[in-house]
């Protein structure tokens, strides 16, 4: 148990340094400052999705092949390159490289991070702690991001490039911390067979992914999470322009009279988002215990989507709307990750999880391009509202006709009942 506690502590340190928030409150403003339009920002987001689509399965397979910890190390280096890229990018092509590299790095994390944690806990026979530890790690990460967001907003006021210098420095620390993590037992020493090293032979990967994703327990859940990622999480790229416009319309005169810069305000606001998000992540296990996986996965996304309509009537509702979006998503992620991991075997785990992330990325393409064009034609607030409407209109028939989670998929203890090797019915 002492060894398990030390490993979990190392994981918390890794997560604390893995996502600094210096650039997050101001990156859209930085793109606009460099002359990009909302349509071009939507194009960048689409290219990010395409990078994910092309990279998820190969990088997931690599994570299973070379080890999840080594996969996380590659991601840390790519994040470093991406942050450094901001310092030289000046046009659409430069920022396509920056964000493309960022997304490629995330493909190394999306499957391997969750698989590493689940398999590590399985080695210590404490997989029932997955939601709690994953949620607590998210809370630690978000708390650090909250502090760095405040610093990033203040640095942006001094010089728009300073937040990116800070991000580069933090990324260097993360590269060092990732090597503190232990390897999963399957990768601690060289193995003679593919079956023993936790990976699938490349030619077997695609049919195995197909069988697991299309299994009774996962097929409609994957569709539902793709809809959630596309229709609901796309709203995240409109936080900065929506908040900026709302502040100018409501509190602009007050802020100007006090000499408070816009970027500094965004830094503190994003820090507040992260604090609420950290609290939500830390309580994910409690929410899962009270609501159960099924109700939590139904009610939280639907509630966020309905909230997206409020600013059309009450403009200042954008603030509680984004707070609700951040907190709810922090609750949803560890709960959905627990459900997915419960339904798949250790062998090829990272590959399958990466494939699910790929499906979600594909679904995001039309939402990002369409909402970007809509925002240019009308307003970012209207684009967010349309995203909420689309989710509700698509999710309700799905609940009725093909429930993403059925009652017999999740027994009373919250652990999926199906054998990972069970073929789809």
Q: Helix and strand layout, with pairings?
A:
Layout: H1 2-18, H2 27-33, H3 38-66, H4 68-85, H5 92-110, H6 112-123, H7 130-158, H8 162-178, H9 202-213, H10 219-232, H11 239-250, H12 252-258, H13 262-282, H14 284-307, H15 318-342, H16 349-377, H17 380-401
Key features of this structure:
425 residues, single chain, 74% helix, 17 helices, Growth Hormone, Chain: A, mainly alpha
Could you explain the architecture of this structure?
This protein is 74% helix and 0% strand. The protein is built from 17 helices and no strands. It has helices spanning 2-18, 27-33, 38-66, 68-85, 92-110, 112-123, 130-158, 162-178, 202-213, 219-232, 239-250, 252-258, 262-282, 284-307, 318-342, 349-377, 380-401. The longest helix has 29 residues, at 38-66.
* CATH architecture grouping: Up-down Bundle
If helices are DSSP runs of H or I spanning 4 or more residues, what is the number of helices? 17
Overall shape: globular
* Class by alpha and beta content: mainly alpha
CATH fold category name: Growth Hormone, Chain: A
* Low-pLDDT sequence parts: 190-198, 411-425
Name the helicity range.
Answer: over 70%
Q: Report the β-strand fraction as a percent range.
A: under 5%
Let me know the number of strands: 0
Distance between the termini: 40 Å
Q: What is the count of structural domains?
A: 1
Q: What is the succession of H and E elements?
A: HHHHHHHHHHHHHHHHH
CATH superfamily (homologous) name: MFS general substrate transporter like domains
What is the CATH class designation?
A: Mainly Alpha
What is the alpha-carbon Rg in Å? 21 Å
Average pLDDT works out at 80
Largest sheet: none
């Amino acid at each position: 148990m002492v060894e398990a506690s030390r490993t979990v502590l190392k994981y918390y340190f890794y997560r604390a340094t893995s996502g600094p928030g210096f650039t997050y409150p101001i990156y859209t403003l930085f793109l606009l400052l460099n002359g990009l339009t909302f349509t071009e920002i939507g194009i960048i987001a689409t290219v990010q999705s395409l990078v994910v689509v092309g990279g998820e399965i190969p990088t997931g397979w690599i994570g299973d092949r070379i080890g999840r910890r080594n996969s996380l190390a590659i991601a840390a280096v790519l994040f470093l390159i991406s942050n450094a890229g901001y310092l030289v990018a000046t046009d659409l092509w430069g920022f396509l490289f920056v964000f493309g590299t960022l997304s490629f790095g995330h493909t190394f994390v999306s499957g391997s991070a969750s698989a590493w944690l689940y398999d590590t806990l399985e080695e210590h026979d404490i997989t029932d702690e997955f939601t709690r530890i994953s949620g607590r790690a998210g809370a630690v990460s978000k708390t650090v991001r909250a502090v760095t967001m405040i610093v990033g907003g203040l640095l942006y006021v001094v010089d728009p490039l300073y937040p990116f210098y800070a991000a580069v420095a933090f990324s260097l620390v993360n590269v060092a911390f990732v090597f503190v993590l232990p390897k999963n037992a399957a990768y601690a020493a060289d193995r003679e067979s593919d079956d023993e090293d936790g990976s699938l032979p490349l030619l077997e990967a695609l049919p195995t992914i197909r069988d697991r994703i299309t299994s009774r327990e996962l097929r409609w859940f994957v569709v539902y999470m793709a809809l959630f990622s596309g229709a609901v999480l796309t709203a995240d790229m409109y936080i900065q322009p929506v908040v900026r416009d709302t502040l100018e319309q409501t509190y602009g005169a007050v802020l100007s009279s006090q000499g408070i810069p816009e970027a500094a305000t965004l830094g503190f606001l994003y820090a507040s988002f992260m604090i609420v998000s950290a609290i939500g992540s830390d309580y994910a296990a409690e929410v899962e215990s009270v609501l159960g996986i099924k109700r939590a996965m139904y009610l939280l996304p639907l509630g966020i989507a309905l909230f997206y309509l409020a600013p059309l009537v009450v403009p200042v509702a954008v603030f509680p709307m984004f707070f609700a979006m951040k907190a709810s998503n922090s609750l949803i992620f560890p709960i959905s990750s627990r459900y997915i991991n419960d339904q798949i075997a250790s062998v090829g785990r990272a590959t399958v999880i990466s494939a699910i992330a790929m499906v979600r990325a594909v679904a995001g393409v039309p939402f990002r391009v369409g909402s970007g064009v809509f925002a240019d034609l009308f307003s970012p607030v209207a684009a967010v509202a349309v995203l909420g409407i689309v989710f509700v209109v698509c999710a309700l028939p799905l609940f009725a006709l093909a429930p993403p989670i059925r009652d017999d998929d999740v027994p009373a203890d919250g652990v999926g009942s199906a054998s990972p090797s069970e073929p789809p019915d």
